[in-house]
Design a protein that fits this description.
The protein is an alpha/beta fold and 465 residues long. The chain is 54% helix and 10% strand. The chain has three domains: 92 residues, DnaA, N-terminal domain (GMP Synthetase, Chain A, domain 3); 197 residues, 3-Layer(aba) Sandwich (Rossmann fold), CATH 3.40.50.300; 91 residues, Chromosomal Replication Initiator Protein Dnaa, Chain: A. β7, α9 and β8 form a beta-alpha-beta unit.
């Protein structure tokens, strides 16, 4: 339990540090170099925190340019951190090199990753897959059902009707999770299959190194010897003519041999800039499965699924609803917000509440919220209940007026960053205690009155669309 809390605490600190670096460096630099960082272990005796990156190239690049900044940020967040060590993830370090010196494309024994027998993969040669990213941990819904079904077909024993599979999704929507899940499921179905996951960045680095060392024949033989090739972030291969040419030949060779190929990108093939038409045609010839941003129902399901890991912490349903509605940009932020909230509650002994969520997740919430105004809320509520707009500020106490006014106050608290006194002033100068009463009343009515809950849900959809 203590180790879980320490891990959650580290994750919460890293979420804050990463968000700060994003503001300083900008989205592009942050997304390319900071976001891929994974937290490692923290040694209390030496004060050393390990930060992992997927490749030697990216680890060296980040260490050269951001080591001092990362170290300072961690020392501010945690005084016990005395130094930060930036290295390649241990699992990635054990991955087989694409370059080989022999004739047969057989991985070295030291490069074999033996996965747990509990998921039926003890005899599979799997390179680069994260053991936690499996289909059982992927929550599906209407936004991603096509991609999930296509991914499962690609991993099945039967030959898929489409190849390659192209997964398209914006940042944090689950395309990388599905890539890893395909690899694990395929290995479970075909013991001994050779499976390789890599980023487009690693593909380019290995390609350049093979050219410099005159090992292109070995490079090609090794790459085309895999039964399943999974390539992530294919958008980063754009603009590299020689790399595109080799990737095109690799696709042709894999498909001709009946092998399977899955690629992922943050945009559709037609939106890739600087891609040769022949490569664009190959990427589009199979199935392009779009993962849409998670809708409110899927976000709820993801939060409930994640909560099953934290049985010792109670999270009220209104907090789940609040997080699902307000953190809507991507799943990574949604899960990160929940982790941070639970970590804070466990480490301080405070119960999880709506107020705690608002206080501790300020940066995440402000980045996700559409700027809905109280005026917009009042106008929408009045149209819905067919009352005059002036009733929002009037002193009338008729039920036909009071209830819509209370609903508008509740929505103002849920959908805007305004304080209770600020909301009260927008409703005819009412006291903050009146607003608190309205918010609590509508929350309580939603739990026992299906009509009220339906009204609020409809209004939320209208305001958030």
């Amino acid at each position: 339990m203590i180790e879980d809390q320490e891990a959650l605490d580290l994750a919460a600190d890293w979420a804050d540090i990463s968000q700060g670096l994003k503001k300083d460096l900008g989205s592009q630099l942050h997304g390319q170099w900071i976001k891929p960082i994974q937290l490692g272990s923290f040694c209390k005796e030496t004060g050393t925190l390990d930060l992992f990156l997927p490749t030697e190239f990216s680890a060296n690049w980040v260490a050269d340019r951001f080591a001092d900044r990362l170290s300072l940020a961690w020392k501010i967040a945690r005084s016990e951190v005395r130094q930060v060590r930036i290295t390649v993830h241990p699992r990635r370090r054990a991955m087989p090199e694409l370059r080989i010196g022999g004739d047969a494309p057989v991985p070295a024994a030291s490069a074999t990753v033996r996965t747990p027998a509990s998921i039926g993969m003890s005899d599979s040669l799997v390179s680069g897959l994260d053991p936690s990213l499996i289909f059982a941990e992927f929550v599906s819904g209407s936004a991603n059902v096509l991609a999930v079904n296509a991914a499962q077909r690609m991993a099945a024993l039967e030959t898929p009707q489409f190849s390659p599979l192209y997964l398209k999704a914006s940042t944090g929507q689950g395309k990388t999770h599905l890539l890893h899940a395909i690899g694990h499921a395929y290995a479970a179905n075909r013991p001994g299959a050779r499976i390789f996951y890599c980023s487009a960045e690693r593909f380019m680095i290995e390609f350049v190194q093979a050219m410099r060392q005159n090992e292109m024949i070995e490079f090609k033989a090794r790459l085309r010897g895999f039964d399943l090739l999974l390539v992530d972030d294919i958008q980063f291969i754009i603009g590299k003519a020689s790399t595109q040419e080799e990737f095109l030949h690799t696709i042709d060779a894999l498909l001709a041999a009946g092998k399977r190929l899955v690629v992922a990108a943050d945009r559709a093939p037609q939106a890739l800039d600087g891609v040769e038409q022949r490569l664009l045609s190959r990427l589009s010839m199979g199935l392009v499965a779009d993962i849409q941003p998670a809708d409110i129902e899927l976000r709820r399901k993801i939060l409930e699924h994640r909560l099953s890991r934290f049985t010792s912490t109670q999270v009220p349903s209104d907090v789940i609803e609040f997080l699902a509605r307000t953190i809507n940009r991507n799943i990574r932020e949604l899960v990160g917000g929940l982790n941070k909230l639970i970590a804070f509650a466990q480490l301080t002994g405070q119960p999880v509440s709506l107020q705690l969520a608002e206080e501790q997740l300020t940066d995440i919430l402000s980045a996700n919220r559409r700027r809905i105004t109280i005026d917009e809320i009042q106008r929408t509520v009045c149209q819905f209940y067919r009352v005059d707009r002036t009733e929002m500020a009037s002193k009338r106490r008729a039920r036909a007026v009071v209830r819509p006014r209370q609903v508008a106050m509740y929505l103002a608290k849920v959908l805007t960053p305004r304080s209770y006194p600020e909301i009260g002033r927008k409703f005819g100068g009412r006291d903050h205690s009146t607003v608190i009463h309205a918010v609590r009343l509508i929350e309580e009515l939603r739990t026992r009155d299906a009509d009220m809950d339906g009204d609020v849900r409809t209004l939320l959809r209208q305001l958030e669309d």
